[in-house]
Amino acid sequence: MPASADSHRPGLSLLTGTASGPIVAMDEGLSFWGGVDAATGRVIDVHHPRHGASLAGAVVLMPTSRGSCSGSGVLLELAMAGRAPAALMFSEPEDTLTLGAIVAAEMFGRVIPVLRLPAEACAAVAAARTASITPEAVEVEGLRIPVAPPPSDALALEARDRAMLDGADGPALRQAMRILTAMARQQGATALTDVTRAHIDGCIYAGPANLVFAETMEGLGARVRVPTTMNAISVDRQHWQAQGVPPEFGEPAARLADSYVRMGCRPTFTCAPYLLDEPPAPDEPIGWSESNAVIFANSVLGARTAKHPDFLDLCIALTGRAPLAGAFLDEHRRARRIVDVALPDGAGPEAWPLIGYLAGHAAPDRVPLLRGLAGAKPSQDDLKALCAAFGTTSAAPMLHVEGVTPEAAMVDAGADRVVITSAQLAEGWARLNDGPEAVDLVAIGSPHASLAECRALADGLAGRGRKPEVAVIVTAGRQVIAAAEADGTRARLRAGGVDVIPDLCWCSISRPVFPAAAKTVITTSGKYAHYGPGLSGCAVRLGTLDDCIEAALNGRVPRRRPIWLS
To answer: What gap in Å lies between CA 422 and CA 341, rounded to an integer?
Structure first.
């Protein structure tokens, strides 16, 4: 007999609506960007247990989402195309997909109910085949789980917030504040907070819905109120026509970038804004999107930002306000899991994306403290790789590294402990390094390469001939490319047969800039080793820098462990 409704605590109806469909239950979170095909709703993350499952029209249940802030854009694209999930259910707090659903309903009338259920209710839903959702309850095979909206009076707005919400500052700010307050209420925020700067991730072209959102806000008179940088976009803005990008993709992608620039955003076009001049200071409240940038800012710089989804990033930039929730607050910055890493002596730079990837699996839903790493003396680029890879497998907005990051002493008294053993490091490397030995493409710069990384590649290729059949591409921000041009590094890379491309990053690159004939890619990026197969349809292998250089020279590199893991 099914359990009675009274045997389950009520859930929260974060976005109210009516829906029904088959249940697709996941034990592991999923990034919609790089994990779900925006054209079909099918799971394309080859590392996910539900790879191949169709989410279109399904009631999707997972603990929370993870990975990219651009998942909100993918969900909006699915909603506009009629291929979205029928409803979303989570057992833990979730922002990215919830925000996409808020925008779909608020601006375009496409309602996707979003619910947060207690763990025991989620278990009951996961065991069922179909579910029906009403504003009052979830019903699964005779079981009724009551739901209610979050309290509407918990959020205290200042007079200036109310003025924007009431339209006193124009329709764009009214719309932005409606979205902000809807997000703040589902987060349980009691107030909004000022931010000093913003970073826009929503300028990546996931499909027409991103462009419709931006141009709608621009048409309402939107203009940013705080200094705002822009993430990598989906075309090389100045050269996409010469690169052969089809106009049906290049034109809307360029229009999207241009719309944000007209709204006052600075055309930095980089997914590593912490490499720009004047990075955020410790404790500085900022409104950043882009998962790797958020994690780096919180963890390494000690700045304060939640992991804001696409579209919310613009709302924050327009108003200068953000929900006072998540990593803005000390309670959400404390480590709740201690991860002891058995790092062998002599570990090279390739250790850091591997550690980040495994640490995300070890702490998928909480901030971890990583121990055992201080003796390796990680560089800024090491920490960049660590944070980026961590962000692919964890929903947490930051991590701590004992003896390295500034807030590593912030550990919850009840934090539990796990270990990443040397055997797990070896197994993780084997998994990410797997693929054909013949390599067609070397991919550097996910996140965008630093000047030091460009120099290291130039040094490795100096005086050696790249195999003509192998493409070597570096993606980097305009500021880094200008510095590489000034000190001769770009000329050395050009002499080695390396293309250095601005504006794009590996998570937004498309064919033919991504070589059409490529089948196997090798990269130093744990982030791209994870997302790349789903985004490109290629085998993507994680390798050392020496592996990448060997592939460039010979077109082959064997599957092997780094010496320190052997």
So the answer is: 8
Question: Which residue is catalytic, options 13, 31, 65, 68?
Answer: 68
Q: CA–CA separation, 530 vs 31, rounded Å? A: 11
The whole-angstrom separation of Cα 369 and Cα 324 is 23
Return d(Cα 325, Cα 95) in angstroms, integer.
11
For 58-110, write each residue's pLDDT tens digit. Answer: 999 999 999 999 999 999 999 999 999 999 999 999 999 999 999 999 999 99
Is 17 within 8 Å of 111 (Cβ atoms)? yes
Cα end-to-end span (Å), the chain: 55
User: What is the total residue count of the chain?
Assistant: 566
Q: Distance (Å, rounded) from C-alpha 234 to C-alpha 250? A: 8
Cα gap 535→31, rounded to integer Å: 12
Question: CA 387 to CA 390: how far, in whole Å?
Answer: 5
Which pLDDT value is given to residue 4?
47
Euclidean distance between CA atoms 210 and 294, whole angstroms? 21
pLDDT for 141 equals: 87
Arithmetic mean of pLDDT over the chain: 96
Alpha-carbon distance 310 to 201, whole Å? 6
91 is catalytic: no
Q: Is 70 exceeded by the pLDDT of residue 5?
A: no
As a whole number of angstroms, the distance between CA 238 and CA 242 comes to 9
pLDDT at 159 over 80: yes
Give alpha helix (H) positions in 272-366. 291-296, 312-319, 351-362
pTM beyond cutoff 0.70: yes
Give, in order, the Cα–Cα distances in Å from 492 to each of 481, 485, 496, 523. Answer: 13, 9, 6, 20
In angstroms, rounded to a whole number, what is the distance separating the alpha carbons of residues 329 and 192?
12
Which distant-in-sequence residues (6+ apart) come within 8 Å of 230 by Cβ?
Answer: 199, 200, 203, 257, 260, 261, 265, 266, 267, 268, 269, 270
Kind plus residue range of the DSSP H or E element containing 161 = helix 159-165
Sheet with strand 368-371: strands edge to edge: 400-401, 368-371, 335-341, 411-420
Choose among 513, 535, 37: nearest CA to 243. 513
Q: Tell me the one-letter amino acid at 63.
A: P
